[in-house]
Known about the structure:
Layout: E1 3-8, H1 9-15, E2 19-20, E3 23-24, H2 25-31, E4 35-40, E5 43-46, E6 49-55, E7 64-70, E8 73-77, H3 85-91
Parallel strand pairs: 1-4
Antiparallel strand pairs: 2-3, 5-6, 6-7, 7-8
Amino acid sequence: MQIFLLLPQALMERFHVITTAYGPWQEFLEKSGFVECRVFEGTHKLGDLAVTAIRVPESDPPVFIDVFVKQGRRIVFAPCDIDPFPIIIRRCGVRICC
Length: 98
């Protein structure tokens, strides 16, 4: 079984920089057949699930809020260590209520 890793371009660029004793981690995982990495921007459809990555403005290193939508229902995944958390969510245009 292979892991399918879907990352926004800004994160994929940083992922390649992570190294191990075997070289770049991403390269090692892909050559070993453990992971297949793909880049996406905006919204990506996985069957009837839509995944949208919203970059937190001015974040460096890049931080993303992920919105998962299926059958009209939403789940928001966001790092809670960004400050101030609720304001950042609203600034990115994500509604938390139903």
